[in-house]
Design goal:
By secondary structure, this protein is mainly beta. It is built from no helices and 26 strands. The termini are far apart.
Length: 393
């Protein structure tokens, strides 16, 4: 067996996930159809990166699973002394086995972060947006200054996008998505970072010109002057109406302290932004009437959850699925379901007990769900498949 082959665990539909001690406050369990370990860090981490974090995940029109991660030498976020690489693994058998890691970006002068893929279902192209930071100068540090200079000495954070036309086997040269230096309200953009998680393509718009739009969730860190410290992050979007030839920045979702947002198109064509809270126990939500460009007033989430990046998608039946750790803290990856356009999520189920941090959920063409999540602090990225028929009605 190749060294990179994952540990595949066969589970009976009604079997428990593990022999761990019972967790407190678990929801009723969902039966798991399949589970495999995608990235194993530690001493034998992929390509010399013992820490693997911040997954991005999509399923291509051909059924290939693509899972991107930050390959970290140290366990710290961008800004520490160790550069961060961007890695990809592919599965062509539904997540049973995984390829060797493919290096998307690696350069000792930079930290590459927040992989955020999306699929253009019209063209079949897979897009990957991601961030570049100068090594030793991260997203929450005042050493980052506004601008789009891509060299390390400039101390600018920039956003790149790449395209694949063969399900992630090869990738185009990177393309810069330049951010504004200053907004109309006078705010200087110290940084504007994408995702992580996944982007979406719109297909329910009443204005037909917006159907096919590609939307990437992001967040900006503004400043009052070029050399001023950053302020609270604001969720924002990047979008393309020409299948990725050009990209534009939308307006910020304001009036609530949130970051690391996800976007989902609702059955009625509205787009919901769902963001990680900066403080407190509830996430924040905004709704857009114009395809994810501008946003209404925020609403607090209807259930308590720890501050963490999570995932939200629209299912084939129109319901909204949210995946994140139910707690306490970053534990117990769970699924919530909404029938009212994301206003409330009254149905909740536990997917797996134990450590659970950042996560991404996608729906397969047959209605099954695939969940990618951090199953340890920084050394294990796991895949779980849930049969669509097992979801509560």
């Amino acid at each position: 067996m190749p060294k990179y082959a994952p540990l595949v665990v066969a589970l009976l539909v009604a079997a428990p996930l593990s022999a761990q001690a019972p967790e407190q406050n678990l929801f009723p369990p969902l039966p798991v159809a399949q589970m495999s370990d995608v990235y194993l860090g530690g001493a034998d981490g992929p390509l010399g990166t013992p820490n693997v974090r911040i997954p991005g995940f999509v399923v291509t029109p051909h059924g290939t699973l693509l899972v991107f991660v930050e390959g970290r030498i140290g366990g710290s976020d961008p800004g520490a002394a160790n550069p961060i690489a961007l890695l990809l693994k592919r599965s062509t058998d539904g997540g049973v086995t995984w390829s060797a890691p493919i290096v998307i970006e690696r350069d000792p002068a930079f930290d590459f972060a927040n992989p955020t893929p999306l699929v253009d279902k019209v063209t079949g192209t897979v897009w990957l947006a991601y961030d570049q930071f100068p090594d030793r100068c991260g997203s929450n540090e005042d050493c980052i200054i506004p601008g789009n200079d891509t060299t390390a000495n400039a101390k600018n954070q920039v956003v790149w996008v790449r395209a694949s036309h063969d399900d992630g086997v090869t990738w185009s040269a990177r393309q810069l998505i330049a951010k504004p230096l200053q907004s109309s309200d006078g705010t200087f953009w110290r940084s504007a970072t994408v995702g992580p998680g996944s982007g979406i393509q719109l297909d329910r718009q009443r204005d037909g010109a917006r159907n096919g739009r590609l939307v990437i969730p992001a967040r900006r860190n503004g400043a009052t002057a070029l050399d001023a410290p950053g302020r609270t992050m604001e969720p924002i979007t990047i979008y393309s109406d020409d299948h990725g030839t050009t990209w534009q920045w939308g307006a910020a979702a304001a009036n609530a302290p949130a970051n690391e947002a996800e976007v989902v198109e609702l059955a009625d064509g509205r787009v919901m932004m769902e963001g990680r809270q900066e403080s407190g126990t509830h996430r924040w939500r905004w709704w857009s009437q114009d395809g994810g460009v501008t946003w209404g007033e925020p609403a607090a989430g209807d259930f308590a959850i720890t501050a963490v990046d999570a995932s939200v998608i629209r299912l084939r039946d129109g319901r909204i699925a949210f995946v994140g750790p139910a707690g306490p803290g970053r534990r117990n990856i769970s699924l919530w379901l909404s029938r009212d356009g994301g206003k409330s999520f009254p149905v909740a189920r536990t997917i797996a007990s134990g450590t659970a941090s950042y996560s991404v959920v996608q729906e397969f063409p047959n209605g099954d769900l695939g969940v990618i999540y951090e199953a340890t602090g920084s050394t294990l990225i796991r895949f779980i498949r849930i049969a669509g028929g097992a979801l509560p009605k």
